[in-house]
């Protein structure tokens, strides 16, 4: 008789934490703001700031993904 997998393991509990998904949502929203600003203006300063905002948002979103993976 084959055993059915249990979904009560520590990794499954950690992957289902709401705080991780909130962190990822914040990172995605910051990234979207950075992309919007990237195409909104034509100044070099705004372009550099928007790239910085984009990378900060991407870093935050990746941090949430790596929390799920526990890497």
Tags for this model:
single chain; 71 residues; mainly alpha; 3 helices; 77% helix; rod-shaped
Provide an overview of this structure:
This protein is mostly helical and 71 residues long. It has one domain (16-69). Helix content is 77%, strand content 0%. It has helices at residues 10-15, 18-40, 44-69. The longest helix is centred in the C-terminal third of the chain and has 26 residues, at 44-69. It is rod-shaped. The chain crosses the membrane at residues 20-39, 45-66. Keywords: Membrane, Transmembrane, Transmembrane helix.
Mind sketching the topology for me?
Elements: H1 10-15, H2 18-40, H3 44-69
Helix content: over 70%
Structure classification: mainly alpha
Along the chain, the helix and strand elements come as HHH
- What would you report as the Rg, rounded to the nearest angstrom? 18 Å
Please, how many domains?
1
Strand content: under 5%
Mean pLDDT, rounded to whole units? Answer: 87
The rough form would be described as: rod-shaped
Alpha-carbon distance between the two ends: 34 Å
**Count of DSSP-assigned helices:** 3
Low-confidence stretches: none
The tally of beta strands, per DSSP, is: 0
Main sheet overview: none
